[in-house]
Amino acid sequence: MSPNAPDFSSVPQPMVGSLIVIMVGLPARGKTYVAQQIRRYFQWNGLTCNIFSHQVYRKRVEKELLREGGSGAPVPSTADIEARVSAIIAKEMTRFIVQTGGVAILDGTQSTTARRSALLRALKSTHHIQPNRVIFVEVVNNDKSVIHNNILRARDLFANAPENFVQQYYSVLEQHEAVYKTLNPLSDSDLSYIRIEDNKNYSLNMISGWMPSRLAYMLHNLSHTPANLYLSRPGEYVDMLCGRIGGNSRLTERGKAYSAALFEYFKAEMPPHASLNVMTSCAKRATQTIHYFAEESSKLYGQPAVDHANSDTDLNCHVSYFPTLDDINHGDCEGMLLSDVRKTMPNTLHSMCADPYYTAWPNGECIHQVFNARLEPHIHDIQASSAPVLVVSHLHLLQGLLSFFITDEDKVVAPQNAYQIDVPFESVIKIGLVGMKRTAEIIDLSKHVNQVLERTNRDVTPSAKEQDLDYNAFRRYDKKPDA
């Protein structure tokens, strides 16, 4: 390889090349949420991303003009202000993509043709990005209830929001509506854009290339009113008690009790007649864990023309089985004792400790392969769902989902570090949207499992959390092989 050749080794997925995304739309349409999801998608695919705010730059320019002009200076026109704001935004966004090779996202209304044209001219004048790598994303929503809920969510973001916050917001909204010009294929035929109307109708113009196409695909599978996501590992199983890696053993009696406890939790958690999508691994321990969900699903979907609202079911759910949610392929180590692997394969484990993400099990998979080839399609399915989703899968896959869906502003867990996330045993992780952020709540069902065992006159065995902690330490590569 030439010494001058670019080094793409740090990019885990084939996401290469800069991109600028410019949000368009009226306030309270969910643009900021969509912008954050765009950022997370490309971040998870290994690119550096940043969200820029048009409002922040507008305020900065207005302050600068006040300082420069003084009391007797003429008031600059709106066009002059827009040109100056656009020039600064273009300079800083292109500087960012030149330095990082990543994705820059501009949040704001960009509600007029003049503002969009000024931005595009300023970006072109930098000569740092091709026009087809500047994508406008318009979010249109005509549902008044959704708009009102978005305004209430915006109010919750302010600690000391005034009592008339909602009224003030509607007043500002009317001002924007008076000048708003939507994107259309006649007047904006020279722009690359993706227009989303009511989260149902999608219009694409001049979208080509790998990253713009992936952006369009991601947006097409993004619900703007996300429901809760629930994650759970299977219940206690035989190979786990034996200290074996992987395998396809059945649940223990305690594992079966967890299956019942999990179902009872969701019967209480879900509102009447609400639908739940259950996605599960095909491993025996996983299918047995969702046994009661499968029974309810068969009542609803096992026969034609069922009235879901009046059907004799305890829970309205639909179960889907995915081999792609199966555990990582441990290759030659599948079914081996943890202790034997530590003793007989020290060199392999040393390599995995040095590079857990890219080092595969002998004749098996690595975490990178699992995330890239198997997990991303399920991320799109989850994001597209307007109903709550329960995923019953295995440690590494749930770690990957957590690393994608749980973020705190720019503080994200890179896929390469997801193996360090703790996914507790006999627990449900509930992920919900609070304001603009997804937050996780852990519901420990261990005591409920004990109650199920007592109620069914079975021995209350201790939870296998100690064995699980040892297994997790092994899977996190915390424990080095025996010397």
Considering the chains and any ligands shown, give keywords for the structure:
single chain, 483 residues, alpha/beta, Rossmann fold, 2 domains, six-stranded mixed beta sheet, 17 helices, 12 strands, elongated
What is the topology?
Elements: E1 19-24, H1 31-44, E2 49-53, H2 54-69, H3 78-100, E3 103-107, H4 113-126, E4 134-140, H5 144-156, H6 165-179, E5 192-197, E6 201-205, H7 210-220, E7 229-232, H8 238-242, H9 253-269, E8 276-281, H10 284-289, H11 291-301, E9 317-322, H12 338-344, H13 346-354, H14 367-384, E10 389-392, H15 395-405, E11 427-434, E12 437-444, H16 446-455, H17 465-475
Parallel strand pairs: 1-3, 1-4, 2-3, 4-5, 7-10, 8-9, 8-10
Antiparallel strand pairs: 5-6, 7-11, 11-12
How does this structure look, described?
By secondary structure, the chain is of the alpha/beta class. 44% of the residues lie in helices and 14% in strands. It is built from 17 helices and twelve strands. The longest helix has 23 residues. The N terminus is likely disordered.
Summarize the structure.
Helices cover 44% and strands 14% of the residues. It is of the alpha/beta class and 483 residues long.
The averaged pLDDT comes out at: 88
Helix content: 40-55%
Strand numbers in spatial order across the main sheet = 2-3-1-4-5-6
Total count of domains: 2
Number of helices: 17
**Assigned CATH architecture of the largest domain:** 3-Layer(aba) Sandwich
Low-confidence segments? 1-14
Q: What is the succession of H and E elements?
A: EHEHHEHEHHEEHEHHEHHEHHHEHEEHH
Report the C-alpha radius of gyration, rounded: 26 Å
CATH topology of the largest domain: Rossmann fold
Which CATH first-tier class of the largest domain would you pick?
Alpha Beta
What spatial form do the alpha-carbon principal axes imply? elongated
**Strand share of the residues?**
5-15%
Major sheet, described briefly? 6 strands, mixed
Q: Decide which structural class fits the backbone.
A: alpha/beta
The separation of the N and C termini measures: 38 Å
Number of strands: 12
The CATH superfamily title of the largest domain: Phosphoglycerate mutase-like
